[in-house]
Fold each of these.
Amino acid sequence: MSQATQETVREDGVIQSVSGPVVTARDLDARMNDVVYVGDEGLMGEVIEIEGDLTTIQVYEETSGVGPGEPVENTGEPLTVDLGPGLLDTIYDGVQRPLDVLESKMNSAFLDRGVDAPGIEMDKKWEFVPEVEVGDAVEPGDVVGVVEETVTIDHKVMVPPNFEGGEVASVEEGAFTVTETVVELDNGEEITMHQEWPVREARPSADKKTPRTPLVSGQRILDGLFPIAKGGTAAIPGPFGSGKTVTQHQLAKYADADIIVYVGCGERGNEMTEVIEDFPELEDPTTGNPLMARTSLIANTSNMPVAARESCIYTGITIAEFYRDMGYDVALMADSTSRWAEAMREISSRLEEMPGEEGYPAYLAARLSEFYERAGYYVNINGTEGSVSAIGAVSPPGGDFSEPVTQNTLRIVKTFWALDADLAERRHFPAINWNESYSLYKDQLDPWFIENVADDWAEERQWAVDVLDEEDELQEIVQLVGKDALPEDQQLTLDVARYLREAYLQQNAFHDVDTYCPPEKTYLILTAIHTYHDEAFRALDAGVPVEEVTAIDAAPRINRIGVQENYEEYVAELKEEITEQLRELY
Amino acid sequence: MKEYQTITEISGPLVFAEVDEPIGYDEIVEIETPNGETKRGQILESSEGLVAIQVFEGTTGIDKNASVRFVGETLKMPVTEDLLGRVLDGSGQPIDGGPEIVPEERHDIVGAAINPVSREYPEEFIQTGVSVIDGMNTLVRGQKLPIFSGSGLPHNELALQIARQATVPEEAAEGDEGGSEFAVIFGAMGITAEEANEFMEDFERTGALERSVVFMNLADDPAVERTVTPRMALTTAEYLAFEKDYHVLVILTDMTNYCEALREIGAAREEVPGRRGYPGYMYTDLAQLYERAGRIEGREGSVTQIPILTMPGDDDTHPIPDLTGYITEGQIYVDRGLNSQGIQPPINPLPSLSRLMDDGIGEGLTREDHADVSDQMYAAYAEGEDLRDLVNIVGREALSERDNKYLDFADRFETEFVDQGFDTNRSIEETLDIGWELLSMFPKAELNRVDEEFIERYYVESEAEAEEEAVEAQA
């Protein structure tokens, strides 16, 4: 979290009452959303209501032992984040305090309170390479130099959007800390590598465009059937145990974005630890560098203070926007937006606001759409193009999608990956229900897939969807009369659909090879099943009984394509063998 | 310490009193009733001149003349290694007639959150000796794995079986017991005296009591005290685990009673209720308990939690199991259908799940084929279960040979794999071998989730087939 700067500190107040994370203060002269320090220990909080002489504050830390009469100090600034080199390869809490710094400052494995730390290291020196010369005219957002932030990412130092801009008066080169001036303008503005930005305000941009490139995730069902665009929005709702978090982790690991911002909002501590331990060791599939080199983590686990849970989503998206401004494609995963909504509900009920649906505040829909609208494919104010894709997990109570958070999310997002408890129970993973899910980006992304993967990408996909639809209808009959009562061609369709489910839709996230499936492989698996389908029906038409057709021993090998490293060769051979074996039958 | 006789309102478990000094939020209050009884409570809301107090032992007997004392600190649990072998009431007072507890330290019962950076990812397999858990829903050290049960089901027997049998195989083999001993913390909330006796008798019979700390809040104890009991238990657990290097297994039963108590307090405070009348902050509140499981980097010990809850009406979409499932790392379902078939323990593996399983099993941890065997059994049992519905309609004869195999598998799976009795302790090898025996009912090609290499190594050739092959070979 950003430290209070030199701005005038307004008048301080005293605590009037304390009830959990909600504190009211008397005589505090503050604006809405100002950050304040509460009590003798200086707990961080934010002003959320002003009424006459009384100011209501939501406190980001535990308030046990805090009582009336203790002081409240105003910083006079809204909740901001520190932006600059050092954001990547770091893990923060919900108000951008680096957790490793907190660990050493508190000297304990447990989170103490009243300890603050800047979001980026203020005294670390970075090698600044200027990209402007004295006399160049620069405008807000323009890049004045670069810093190698991690092995993967060049951090671009920009003129802050709230500067006026002008002619460059002096430029430095060499090692500097983020607070030292590297470029000075003729109007006296000094540019450092450090910027601050209020989290609840979107960073400015020039234009928003229709996204036309896919965010390739390496997950067959996502890339193949329900793709999301770079700059798109997606929701993953599902009951517990259906694999929301694994899906989010897979996306964070394998999505072809430049930067990943992963927000663990009110989720499990051990899950965040898994990310912290795994990501530095995993390879980024596009560059081969450690995954952490492109990742910024925000971990506000379910037992950390509820008010910081409310803010962590904003902290995350602001960091994402900052890298978007540099021209990068950023993917933000929020796990889970339901916890965020519940945090709003909890604070709203402590404020005794009139509740809306199921106790959620009436502004729930507005907050959700505000958040997802900050995603998109943008033309930045410096002319570059960048994107923020937002993927939010939703945890509906009882797995019931008709609840307010799911419904309000679905009204905004364009990709819907519905997780299904039934599929999860039979260990069909990812447990994404192919009948309920959808992607509205399909048509605008097809040209990319056709150009980069295969000419008949769209037709093959449609074929798969048709077979799965037919299976869905047939299953209803099977439930009544059994499979053997169906005509032979329908039995064969069911067999083909089974391969689609087992070899194409299912993917083992814990298998070294299968965990990442490039679009080419996704496509080839589909064509292998299609070959089986065509040849099998030809055999059936030639009078071969369906039992013999489905009994060929090459067919089950379709299920093993996923785990093959040399899949091209394997698929080619397999197709030949399937054809051969089936033609032998007649 | 200043005394006040300024109570203005008493409502359910809440007492409101006027004060002329600032009182800290969450601090402890002692209220002395006119007949000399002392009750303890906690500050729920503190404002200038007025405080709201939540009384743990119930407000019976308190009147406006009762005197109120503010202790000036939040609720603390006196902790010491000597607590092992002791039985305490729901708010931490000894009730076993033993000597007074001399605390080594006093810890705040509202535990601070473990910094995610300081955590160590749990991946040490705990062998519970129960096949369905070890084989298909593996428990690891530092995990929180609740038992979802219903009224009248043998969840207590299961919990006791786990407490009795849980070991970490490699350590047992090495005989390395010096650094990290095993301890059980038992937190009972609102259970009946009879249930409590069952637990105590089993603890005494097996000698488990001397490595246990028991917290007893019984059904007729004040409900509000229940909100403190698990915190006391977990504070003790953290102390033993992270300062005294014990591997602590915490059993909390019954979380449903705990949540009822939360609702009661919420209603008395006239809060805006959430789903089914439970407070909106119940997720946060439960998380503050469950998240206290885990391991910390550089410390020997661990806290593993097995909370037990009875689902009202066996409905897992009820807020209590629902919110629990979203926080814990999986769940074990005790199933009414299996129970009535006499299967012990009646665990239904299909809805059960252990999220930390994948990292705790495999080569070097359990056995190389563990994950594949588990996956294949899941898929096969799920298919068999589906077919059972169909059999009811069309009969067995109408089904193909393949389908009949799956039906047989489902039956044998229940009777041979799941039904082992509450007193049988199976090693992980035994569990997996039984698994292979069952899977070998299917032809090899049907085992599409198992690596070919493992099929070669572990597949049990049936005698008939083996003979056939031998004949073929001779020919």
Note: The first strand of chain B starts at residue 3 and ends at 4.
Amino acid sequence: NPEPWQLNMSPGVTETSRMVYDIHMLILWICVVIGVLVFGAMGYAILKFRKSKGAVPAKWSHNTTAEIIWTVIPVLILVGMAWPATNTLIHMADTDDAELTVKITGYQWLWRYEYVGTDVNFVSKLDRDSDRTRMLGSGLNPADVRTGDQNTYLLNVDNPLVLPTGTKVRFVITANDVIHAWWVPVLGWKQDAIPGFINEAWTRIDTPGTYRGQCAELCGKDHGFMPIVVEAVPREQFDAWLAQKDAEAKAAATAANVPATGDALAVVQ
Amino acid sequence: MANHAPDQNIYYVPHGSKWPLVGSIGLFLLVGGFANLMNGNRTLGLPMTLAGVAIMLVMLYGWFGNVITESVRGFYNRQVGTSFRMGMIWFIFSEVMFFAAFFGALFYARMLSVPWLGGEGDGVATNAFLWQGFEPAWPSNGPQSIGGEFGLIPAWSVPLLNTLILLTSGVTLTIAHHALKAGNRAQLLIWLGVTVLLGCVFLFYQAEEYIHAYRDLNLTLGSGVYGSTFFMLTGFHGLHVTLGTIMLAVIWFRCLKGHFTKDDHFGFEAVAWYWHFVDVVWLALFLFVYVL
Amino acid sequence: MATHAAHHDDHDHKPGFVDRWFFGTNHKDIGTLYLLFSLLMFFIGGSMALIIRAELFIPGMQIVNPEFFNQMTTVHALVMIFGAVMPAFVGLGNWMIPLMIGAPDMALPRMNNWSFWILPFAFLMLLSTLFMDGGGPAGGWTLYPPLSLQGGNSMPFVIFAIHMMGISSIMGAINIIATILNLRAPGMDLLKMPVFVWTWLITAFLLIAVMPVLAGAVTMLLTDKFFLTSFFNAAGGGDPVMYQHIFWFFGHPEVYIMILPAFGVVSEIIPTFARKPLFGYQAMVYATASIAFLSFIVWAHHMFTVGMPLGGELFFMYATMLIAIPTGVKVFNWVSTMWKGSMTFETPMLFALGFVVMFTIGGFSGLMLAIVPADFQYHDTYFVVAHFHYVLVTGAVFSIMAAAYYWLPKWTGVMYSETLGKWHFWLSTFFVNLLFFPQHFLGLAGMPRRIPDYNIAFSDFNMWSSIGGFGFGLSQLLFAWIVIKSARGHGPRATAQVWEGAKGLEWTVPSPAPHHTFTTPPVIDDRVLAHGDVTH
Ligand code: HEA
Ligand code: HEA
Ligand code: CUA
Ligand SMILES: [Cu+2]
């Protein structure tokens, strides 16, 4: 969840997100160090070898040793960066052995969540407060949209996605109209939602909490207004919640005599 | 320095020309009109398109006319010839890359997207959650059978015939070229004429094939990704054959008028290169679209 | 030998206004047209950027609605890339390549004029869509389907405009290749050519190879929308991601199309003001070629989050990282050229130095983006926006400004005002960093790109960024002023050599360069040649 004046990526709340954060810091520092060296040399040259200080230009224009050195050293540095990156990537790609599968579908402009194997299936869209405030010339102050002590302008939804902590959750992600992307920064990844195809991803959240994110692929006029909220709760609490929702959904289905996983739009309207 | 003699050592800087600007206006009207037509705006679109076509034709006629006149009067030297040749070669290369985009689409659809939709490789979940029961195969119009059932054009029928026709036309064109170099104008006209005819025959069969596909086979542009790649590849190729044939015909008339000399006939060569390029594209098409 | 200007009895006689500017064939005039067009487009595209920045000044929607915001984002990028940066380099190439290789003109002068004149019409068409029902394109400059297929009436116009820009670029590139390969003065061997000429030669190959692919990609969009095809529709066996592959096969080389000539410019300027030959001339040439080659096999680094197979992700990550090597060679060579030189800091040099530093910063963030797991976080955030504006604005645009100051005296015959030039540099540098540096923070904190409104947490840096944007924009008025003043001939007269340390054929002709130059091929004296090391 973004903080005012936040400068850096958040280490997140999963093992994966911390691996990603570590890589980010590693490559950042490598770049900073190389930058300091290169700009340092350049600054020195600028200060030292100026005509106004009577510098006389040298005549040489190449130096094979130097050129070999500054080709080889970067290669080694790159290998040093690629190594952990490869490991992390392999770690992230492994969606096996998940205990729970959630199907995420992007729509213009909301998200549908289905807990695979149950009848629990709902849509999640921008909360009313933000929605009212974000209208052109609404006159409302975005600073007034709050949840608790947090400002949640554009980062809050009506129905959050509830997930258990300490559990490997697999996501199967797709879209119904155009491409969207599901992104909660503290989980450490984003994944595109492509109409007609399924992308897979997974997470295992360590700490309970409310985690916010946004759609991260331009999907039309309200692309900026389809946030994501994940509510991570302890496993028992989650099981209870899911069982209750499942029962409600089944009851509603029999009452209305329509399948609960019916046409998405029917549920939206 | 102001004499107009075709000095081989003089770099030729042509004088100004209105044709580039006319061409830009023509192109603008042509595509602008076409865009209006696509949006269903015929009242504006049709006249714009027609005006565009007309202006483009005038422009081509005028511009090439200028160049031909200058060439015939001997203003150009070897260096100009080399520039023209380089221009033509790189133009053809750009055309190759244009076709590459569509071949890329064909390979992607055959080797990646259709298999994925059918649950192969990385597509297991895609198939299981979205397209259960879809069996990947090529040709395919996708899991929703867009455009409905369709039939195929067997490679070893008309397409084979067309392959032979194009290959032959490549040979006849080369014979014509040799005749030109040998100074044998009669042979040149005959063989070049045969080439033009073969081009027309190819186009005739291609048109027949399209009619057959649309009428009897229900194979259309709308037949899923197979129909899309099939018609876009063969269609753009056909368009290039049409252009090539027209160019050949123009060259034929120029030969008739006695243009081109034994050792200076860039116009002829350019068209010949273009024709061979069209030929090679067809071979790739025959292989990847029809045979495999 | 002499130039044969048919129907011109006096070869330095200047034709009338219409003949000269509309029907002309002179590379200098066409170059000027390109450069002026580019400046106009830079202002138009920049104004759109300012609308974006104004809306993002504070949270909440104040000025435009989201549809229009997206149109601004999309058209801003298209105008800047195809209207400002690419034509600027073509203009520089037109002006300078014949002068640098001792050619009398471009190889195909009439086609040259056509390449230019297509552009105004293409942009007329593109910009006119903003006034149509449903407005202009709003799917981002990348035009990803299915979103781009939802566009209203604008779509076919935008696509045909792109076709026209492509035709123009391809013809321009063909011309440049033919000029360089065919029109060099005797003795101007390939490995004696100025680096700017080299980089343009390689860029021209890139253009011819990828512009047709873009044309193909957008053509498929058109048929998917209007002619029932299913290239990008899964239900018919296609794939929306297929578009992205084809687009980025064009798109990645495209970004090097916008930076290789910039490398060339900087490689001309630094030796001049360091008064020392360019370090590692041949290495520069080979590095340019390597970058061009690699650019064809890295495209999918823009698509790490689309769900490619693991092997693909790894391949594209490694290939992308490799580009840091030849680019590093260039950076190190520039620094080595300064080392033990005798430097002065006129405006072109300031912009060139600014380029080296800030382009490298952009390169570093590019390298970070190449690391797949990290890109899962960075992708489609303001971190990416920061990256590409560093390489494009402080990279490509700064190099264009450096080039403009460097060659303005040659073009106009008068020196611009050094004081104003320095002001322009320092103001631009200050504001551009205020504009784009905080965007790194925004991206890392989680602000997605292409959004018209954002959470309160992002407000402070957005405010800085917007202030920087307006400051940077206003600073460019200074640039326009300086250029106009020079173009109208106000200022002290420039000598032929202009800069004390300048070497190369272009400095052997008078300033302003006469309408026709090198009507007789010059005798190449290796000592006056550009800063290539001609001894090996
Ligand atoms: C001129 C334009 C330009 C240039 C030169 C570059 C250069 C590079 N770019 Fe950039 N890029 C863009 C324009 C450009 N880019 C644009 C426009 C986009 C966004 C498109 C869109 O989505 O709209 C983009 C997006 C983009 C992405 C996708 C991000 C995303 O959407 O998630 C990636 C990912 O790999 C990337 C990588 C790189 C790399 C590795 C380089 C390398 O070439 C950089 C190499 C340079 C250096 C590394 C610095 C100098 C080197 C040294 C000093 C040597 C030593 C260094 C080391 C060993 C570390 N770029
Ligand atoms: C060469 C390419 C280029 C250039 C030069 C620029 C220049 C600028 N860009 Fe651009 N930009 C892109 C290429 C470029 N951009 C691309 C490819 C995208 C991605 C689009 C997409 O997502 O699809 C993008 C997106 C983009 C965004 C993100 C939009 C979003 O994601 O929603 C922003 C936001 O700040 C931005 C800002 C700017 C600014 C402030 C400038 C400034 O440098 C502009 C400065 C120039 C001027 C301001 C004009 C000159 C001055 C005047 C007109 C005088 C009047 C001035 C005043 C009244 C102050 N750009
Ligand atoms: Cu959904 Cu952006
Ligand atoms: Cu790239």
Note: Chain C touches chain A through 98 residues (CB under 8 Å).
Amino acid sequence: MSTTEAPDLVTTIGLEVHVELKTSTKMFCGCPVGFGGEPNTRVCPVCLGHPGTLPTMNEKAVEYTTKIAMALGCDIAPRSIFHRKNYFYPDMPKNYQISQYDLPVGERGSLEVEVDGEFYTVGITRAHLEEDTGKSIHVGGGGRIHDADYSLEDFNRAGTPLVEIVSEPDITSPAIARAYATELRAILEYLGVSDVRMEEGSMRVDANISVAPPGERGKKVEIKNMNSLRSVYRALEYEERRQREVLRAGGTVTQSTRHWDEKAAKTKELRTKEEAFDYRYFPEPDLVPLEPAVEWLRQLREEQPELPIERAKRYERKLGLTPYDAGVLRSTKALGDLFEEALASAKKADAKQVSNWVTNDLMSVLAAVPEGTKNPPLTGSNLAELVDMVAEGALSKSQGQQVLTKMVETGLGAREIAEESGIKQVSDEGALEEAIDAALAANPDVAERLRSGDNKPFGFLMGEVMKATKGQGNPKVVSGLIRRKLIHPD
Amino acid sequence: MQLWERTAADVASLIASKEVSAAEVTESCISRTNEVEGDVLSYLTLTPEAARAKAAEVDSAVAAGDPLGPLAGVPMALKDIICTQGTRTTAASKILDNYIPPYSATVAERLYAAGGTMLGKTNLDEFAMGSSTENSAYQITKNPWDLERVPGGSSGGSASAVAAGQAPFSIGTDTGGSIRQPAALCGVVGLKPTYGLVPRYGLIAFASSLDQAGPITRDVRDAAIVLQVIAGQDPRDSTSLPSPVPDYVGALAKGIDGLRIGVVKEISGEGVDPAVQARFREAVQLLEKLGAKIGEVSLSTFGFGIDIYYLIAPAEASSNLARFDGVRYGLRVDGPDVATMNSLTRAAGFGPEVKRRIMLGTYSLSSGYYDAYYLKAQKARTLIARDFARAYEEFDLLVSPTAPTTAFKLGEKTQDPLTMYLSDICTVPSSLAGAAAISVPAGLSSDDGLPVGIQFMARPMDETTMLSAAYAFEQELGPLPKPPLWSTS
């Protein structure tokens, strides 16, 4: 929970999220969309803003934006238009950005988020489509544009389709803000419309936060440069505390834009609102209005995948999973899909067992794999094979964990790995009894103590037997045999 | 008759029938150009070598019996605001002094594909902003009828090249009259197509919602032939219209008989020079003689055309011209930081009229003024289109003089921008309505012996009716005398 010591002050947060769409080409030209690469290699006269060039609409970008707006429950505009946002910046080739203004693709949606078992509804003001800028590198001076020795421009990103999703100022704590951004990221991932990599900038979160006594309006502070969900939370928590302290000390908060410094764990003032721009918006005369056909919209609605929150609810209701497990399984689309595939092909294991393997064992293995939960390197049927082998007793739980690690490393099937590595479980009572007898013979006092009701050497004896069977003894069978022999002889 | 004196249609058929070679035609136009260029200064860039190479290609195609394009071997001049790959394109601005486009405009591509041989790029008012071509950053183009006078603008170089015999046809662009007014002042034909008929891809934008490229020719038939080549949808221009392109040349013979033609009161009387009015009235009588039903129509919004135009066009221009910042191409004047570099570059690169319009446009889009200026002008613009639509319930075509005066003296209006702006009073309404219009020579003024043009205005996409009426009128009137410069060879 956020700062709580001043209940007389209310925090108000609104988030502005920019998402790069993963279309194959740019918004208004045929250049490929991508990340990184040699500077200025994915450019053409159109995205370099050469004189005489004109934008042409990327239909896929319109489709993705519409899907996002629908998933957020927005009203889809029967007619939406593009505007020019005019301002000079060297990484913006035309010195205006083609964006949307008063008629965006989607308006008036909402998103439900959960924090510590409480549900909150955050209103979505709008979702609109625009083009991204290039990237500037300011060399020398303070690394800022006005005191640099020179600036380098890379236009590879210029013209990448970008969707801006603006929330209502409905968010009352940094934790809810983080939950909102997390949920939004999950939805975008489910829709398959963006890479949503905050560290690469394909999802960028800016926040507006103000603190004021209830019923009053605080001064809005905009925070930029939050490059992970964690920094969204940290920056807002810092800023909330800072503003509270200013107000409690009798001061006033300055309306401004502040930069989150991750290392210093502080926000720093960039500019105050007096320097606000006049963007001189006007309708883009080079593009025609978007007027989506009713039939096309109906088709998009039909194609809309199950969203993360719906999936979690289904897992809880239909499969009886705990809210925690359902929450882990729905956190990425790929993880949920993997779970469902495994469950469908498992012959013995039930939903709870499969879920446990994913939420506990697989999650800890995947923690070491980059983007592991987005692209788990194993198939559902392989996972089912493993879970079944353990359920059948062919592998012990810890052997199963061993095999799972190898499955993720190699991409091979569970049975294949178990056979090649000679991992198997011995459940044959005769063989195991021999091992127990041998261990007891070597340690005569153990038998004595167990028989006399002292349970302490039980673990030791188990260990000796497992050692003797090279870890393959079925622990259930071994412990059963020991009990039968020494503790509760019939 | 010299080859350079011939029309595009004549030249194309002479080449196709092997009576002359494309090389001969090209050489004739090149030597004619060299002969008079020092007097008229039509061109900013001459490309004789490229023209010769293209002519040689056409001649091999003729020899091989390959199919020929409708303009095979026809020399042409393109306004220097049309991007031509590998050939410097300046928009007559110092800010693009060194600019060589990496691609060609759709219009240029279509003309090359039809066999046209480009002789060079013609002078204009900087970024097409002006009505006399005196706003060029490079040179003052002269009117072939009187070298002391302007050729009109902004496509002044394109009009003078055709009138002086340098090229059988040229391409201009028209935002508020920039094809029609110089055509009228130089005694040639100029056609502004319906907005969206000819793709804008590769035209350096002045006012995006108004700009259209179109032909400047010596007769109406040539205008139809060239329009046929350049018209039609282009996937690179979202505002280009999907309608099929009609047969313009085939429609020429339809004539005027029975057409209802309205004389627009607001732009044909008051404000128009009496000698121009007189010649225009005779032209209307000629139309009546040809069987047209003539009526007068009052379209009150036309009186506001110039006001509306000078709110909308500069607003769009202020945004369109923002890209000239010294970062990626064109002029750069270095400064201590990026913003100063931008300012110094633009201060040095743009001329006074361009700066004036950027200021006007920036102002009318500014927060607090947008509703009162830009938005109100857009609303008024729809009223003009509505007035047109109302008039077309009664008439098939509307007519007016093309320009309120004949060609004026060099320097006569440069000190008074508002007077200069009024040169477009007759042409601006159809630009604002996105409709088609053509200027055709209507004879010489009895006052100064200079050409007067009549403007035919049509419904959007009704170029065929407009061309057939203009053609019949031209045939009945007979050829205009040639400008004095014509006889110098």
Note: The longest strand of chain A covers residues 118-131.
